[in-house]
Amino acid sequence: MNASAPADVTRQPIFNSIEQACNRLGVRKTKFYEFVNAGSIGTVKLHGRRLVPEDELLKFAAAVRNGEFSEVA
């Protein structure tokens, strides 16, 4: 390890697992998939895993915060 280069502990992943995304949003998987199926949160498939891009979580959070999101029925 290079002592002159401090570790960047604030760096966020580019992609989140479904479990990580659910934890960050504070929802269960069932609700999370409702958001995905409604088109409110986009996902990608990479090497057989379904992942959530960080920018999708941030975009969803901004929509909720700005009142641009209506709850999935």
What features would you describe in this structure?
This protein is of the alpha+beta class. Helix content is 40%, strand content 15%. The chain has a domain at 15-65. The chain has 3 helices and 3 strands; from the N terminus they run βααββα. It has a 3-stranded antiparallel β-sheet with strand order 1-3-2. Strand 2 (44-46) and strand 3 (49-53) form a beta hairpin. The model has no long low-confidence stretch (mean pLDDT 87).
Summarize the structure.
The chain is built from 3 helices and 3 strands; from the N terminus they run βααββα.
Keywords:
3 strands, 73 residues
The proportion of strand residues reads 15-25%
What Rg, in angstroms, do the CA atoms define? 15 Å
Q: Would you count the extended β strands for me?
A: 3
The low-confidence runs, each spanning 5 or more residues with pLDDT under 50, are: none
Order of strands, main sheet, comes to: 1-3-2
Task: Describe the sheet with the most strands.
Answer: 3 strands, antiparallel
Structural class: alpha+beta
Distance between the termini: 51 Å
